[in-house]
């Protein structure tokens, strides 16, 4: 089983009506050497300036990005090339990140290589600590910059810390 930490930046709150602008993925293994970064041309005329601003791109810049079909196909191929067993999707905010990645895979590739499930890193940490009010973010090493690879890497570092220092039983191939 291979765990992929994912982070998404979008120009609005939901896929279809709005667009995923960029995303980052990190294969969670010691060293965190294998990453994927995708920038996607908007698929909708709708966008919220404040949401897009988080990504650091202007609307004009995003209109020059590669098509969603091209990027999602490359991402699917990368997952296939780096996966041992079933790929598992994990993110800091899987309610947001999963909806975009799942929707884009189904619409532009025809299937989601992650299947039908995702894991929320924050909920996993809260369960380990038996405390719904704790936060894992102090376990990150990489600064949270809103560049999706940086953010996915920081979250992957937290997952590795949960394994190495807190005893999380997880197999990372």
UniProtKB/TrEMBL annotation:
Record key words, sorted: Exonuclease, Hydrolase, Nuclease
Gene Ontology molecular function terms on file: exonuclease activity; nucleic acid binding
Sequence ranges assigned to domain Exonuclease in this UniProt record: 5-158
Gene Ontology biological process terms from the UniProt entry: DNA metabolic process
Short name of any one Pfam family annotated for the protein: RNase_T
TM region positions: none
InterPro entries given in the database record: Ribonucl_H (IPR013520), RNaseH-like_sf (IPR012337), RNaseH_sf (IPR036397)
Gene3D superfamilies named in the record: Ribonuclease H-like superfamily/Ribonuclease H
Superkingdom per UniProt: Bacteria
Protein name: Exonuclease
